Amino acid sequence: xxxxxxxxxxxxxxxxxxxxxxxxxxxxxxxxxxxxxxxxxxxxxxxxxxxxxxxxxxxxxxxxxxxxxxxxxxxxxxxxxxxxxxxxxxxxxxxxxxxxxxxxxxxxxxxxxxxxxxxxxxxxxxxxxxxxxxxxxxxxxxxxxxxxxxxxxxxxxxxxxxxx
Length: 164
Description:
Layout: E1 10-16, E2 20-30, E3 36-42, H1 54-59, E4 62-68, H2 70-75, E5 79-84, E6 95-102, E7 109-117, E8 123-126, E9 137-138, E10 141-142, H3 144-153
C-alpha cells in the first residue's frame, strides 16, 4: 500500500453522492485532542465538472471545523488531494466544544462542558453550555462518514448533543 503523506495546507475534494463536490483543508494538528488533524470544510458546493482554483477555494466561507483522521478518508477514496494553499486561516482563534456525560471528579452522571482552542488546555465551563459557545464546532475526533453527513445535512449524525 502506498504511504499517504499529508501536510498542513493540503486541500482535498469530496464528491457528494455524485451530485456536487466540496472542499476541505488540513489546517492544523491539535495535540490537545489526540494529536488529530483539524480541517476546515468550505460551504461552497461546486458542480462535479468544475475546477476552481485553490485561491477561490480558500476564499470561500467556512462551513465548519472538525477533528478527523484525514488519511483514512484518503486511503478509503472518500476524498482526494487536489492542491495546497499557504492560507489556512486564523488557527489561533478557532475554538471547539465538547462534553462528557460523567463527571470524573464525582463519577456522577451529568453533562460537563469544555471548550478549547487548538493546542490549548480544555476549559471546563460547567453543566450548561453558555450561549456564547453553542455555535462552536464539536471537538470530538470524527470518522469521515460523520464529516460527510455534516456536509450533507448541517449536523453530525444523530446530533451528539442537544446543542448540535
